[in-house]
Amino acid sequence: MQQLLKQTISAIVAHEDSDPILDCPASVLALLPDHPDPLIALAHSKLHTFPFDSVPVCWRRVYTDASVAKAVALIEHGLAGFDGDDTCLQHKDRKRGRGADKNPANEKSGEAWVDEVVQVLDMAVIMAGAAGREGMIDDLLSALHDFTPPKASSQMKRQRLDQDCDSFPVGQQMQSSKVPKIQYPIQSATAPSMQLFETHMKTAQPLCIKEALTHWPAMHERPWSSPAYLLDKTLGGRRLIPVEIGRNYTDADWGQSIITFREFMQRYMTPDIADPTKVGYLAQHDLFSQIPSLRKDIAIPDYCYTSPPSSDLFSWGTARKPPPPQLEEPLLNAWFGPTGTVSPLHTDPYHNILCQVVGKKYIRLYSPDQTDKLYPKGIEGGGVDMSNTSEVDAEATPEKLDADYPLFRHAEYVETVLAEGECLYIPVGWWHYVRSLSVSFSVSFWWN
Question: What is the pTM of this model?
């Protein structure tokens, strides 16, 4: 660990001529690595001055490098209170009797400093995108994970979710969930060949793909259905994640919060603890860049490397818009939440393969030619273009729909219940509504 810390500090103070951090004032860089806190505060203010895509890279690097420097200092201070072997962090104070904890100098003893290190590094990932330091941050967190004892699970253990019942209660939740009767099923195929899939794409129709994930470790030997496994991969649940609070992002009371993975599990994923009136959703988050070890549990479907039918313009939302830039690699996002999470009826600018790892989801799709019946939103407060999202709650009562959206009930659609181990191909521009029928963990792959 000590060698890693030295190498890390050396890396953040040695700048090549092409390093974007050099675009920041020299007076700012002079504070690295010994004064990280004022640098984090300064860079944080810069991050909120511009839209994220417009933030100068140098300020994202300042935020990241200052966070790394602070984390290194915290680790060095924390290790000073522990025995010298690098197999496990056993605090010296635990050998001195009860009185040791009363010493104010020990306020960072135990595991509190580990929590702070993880928080500092994760905020660099979430707020600044890690800005070229992804590997460095992962190395620090991996080293910390390797010899940090598991975080006491207290309340979670009392719920027997970490141990004896080492899987989410998907079956039990399905029995009590509102499962729609499928009237207009989506066409399906069992592990089609690449040639058959490319042929199908020319029809511009969705496809449910069965038995496509049998080789994923996340389905078997490294199961995402296990709360204990997910807690371990998130450093005892210490890792921070962005969570959407509310049933869906079109609701008035919808919001966002950054909390630890353990808090998320306790508040929203543990049946005997969670408040059923509150919904939290880890939605459309690049969890796999943040936690690369989870990325090793899955594989990009080969179908994402096919060539979709080309088009100069395509319809999504209410207007014909130029296509987004060509992607070099598919965009991966995680979707993890309890029963009842909803993605409202919307459309995306990419082809999508949605893979279901844990639980089941009800999904309804509408072709782009049904757009005029789907009541797309327009430009909302702050100039936000919401034309890719419908005003309609797709599962509202017939009375509500007839009163407020009379054309909607005439829109043609197809639907499915996507089960564990299945994928759904959603062609670019197709409107889709998604509701989880149980605890659910999905991965989306966008490509063009």
Answer: 0.88
